Amino acid sequence: MARRGWRDLDESDVRVRPGRRNSRPRSKLRPEHADADQAMVVAVDRGRWTCALDSDPGRLVVAMRARELGRTPVVVGDTVGLVGDTSGRPDTLARIVRVGERRSVLRRTADDNDPYERIVVANAERLVIVASLADPPPRTGLIDRCLVAAYAGGLVPVLCLTKSDLASPADMLSSYSALPLPVLVTRMDHPHEQLREALGGRVCALVGHSGVGKSTLVNELVPEAERAVGEVSGVGKGRHTSTSAVALPLPDGGWVVDTPGIRSFGLAHVTPDDLTAAFPGFAEAAEECPPNCGHLGGAEDPECNLDTYVAEGGSAEQLGSLRRLLRSRAGRDEQ
Asked: What SS3 class is residue 151?
């Protein structure tokens, strides 16, 4: 019989290789891990997550992300399910198998043209925006941007003005009087009882420009934290003393999340409607605005219905503050 070449073969001649012996098809079913321990992420460092157990907050467990989670982001403040060794002993490692739904998210981008969102902290109830009245002077543009991020992310903002022994808070109080914004005024030589009360029993994040005294506040609130206190440089810009977000337990309950000092706060992820939604009366009025309205009024948005809302009895002062935040979101009037 003559030997056939490959041109003479048809599909019936093709040998089908059998599958691997004892192999099973991969299932899409995953274990439910119903017995997983609930915990909160308190620190992140190079692919390892430090978690505080709900049942024993004083026990810190180091964990890795389970393979089935893929690249699911896990950040400080996340509620997670842990399996494996949750003893917290040195050289032990648990696995994060579940990430709970987030109730709030503080996001920022590197700048207003950066599409990549960075989650700073999850599930914080309040965002305490720390600003100094002097040395360095207050930056209302940065404060406004933090306010925008808080409103858009579902956090209740609180403004904390430090170093009132060096400058009067009157101008700053006037600037934010039209907003539903609690303002705390502190000085370094007095106890911070109002701040303790504002944070107590809650998960709260502190954010602020470097050198404003944020780490000093954290050291007083949580003495054992031993957070480094930055020195303000000669040009008015402090050194970054906190390099990553970390949640610290408050003595009377609750957590304070100390975030890295920031020089800018990008808001590429926030739309005008995201911000307006935080103001109930204006949010309802904005539904009658034309498509793609930026809610700035004037020549830019001449048909903005927010002006009609104010003409019919809405607060002109609050609209002015809202539009200042909208301009800040758009990268204008930033200081």
From this structure: helix
